[in-house]
Amino acid sequence: MQSPKYIVLVLVAGLLASGTAGAMNVSSVVATASGFEASYTFDLPFTLNGNDVTSIMILEAGAGGEVSMGFPFSVAPGGTSTLAHNLGFFPTSALIVGLELPDPNVGDGKTHIVMMVDRGFAASSIGLRFSEAFPNSRHSLFIANLFIANFLLAVDGDAAAQQELEDFFLTGDGAAAAFTPGGYFRHIISTVIVPEPAGLGLWASGLAALVLLRRRA
Questions:
Q1: Domain residues of the chain, as ranges?
Q2: What's the pLDDT tens digit per position in 105-132?
Q3: 3-state SS string over 104-158?
């Protein structure tokens, strides 16, 4: 049986950026009668479990400090998809995050974080652990794989979780990964590795603790 110390180390450093940087993808911003429509078109030939990418959140910021969180979206692998929504401001930076959940009968049985990011960031993150690609987040937002728990709470409307994601996007490590709407971007896929069986119990305990803290707040 693995020691608790070893399990914690795996959970902290167990998010791996794969070699899948994706083909070039393009975005556009078009003025409308009520504001702007931002669209993001990308080719997602496959996912590691073969499942849809769900709980997708589009984070966007404007030059005047405006912030938008558009969610939830979902896309299926195997072709070209477009995510589009309306905003009241012109976005100058964007970051898109979604999850591919595990299937015990298909693929590697792990949860994958799919992110649409800046092309240069994608190229530099290939082969890195998630904690290496986002080094300043590993001891807070991402500790013990709580990124996924926090992200799902944000998609579910939790204000504190949404604020953490906004901070990550605007002033944290996510700012370096953000791309400019109207230009090109790439996708990266990260794998969450949880030791079995003790790791799952620790991860679940962390999720329960996070939910409890949110409710008390």
A1: 20-130+151-192
A2: 776 677 888 899 999 998 888 887 777 7
A3: CCECCCCCEEEEEECHHHHHHHCCCEHHHHCCCCCCCCCHHHHHHHHHHHHHCCC
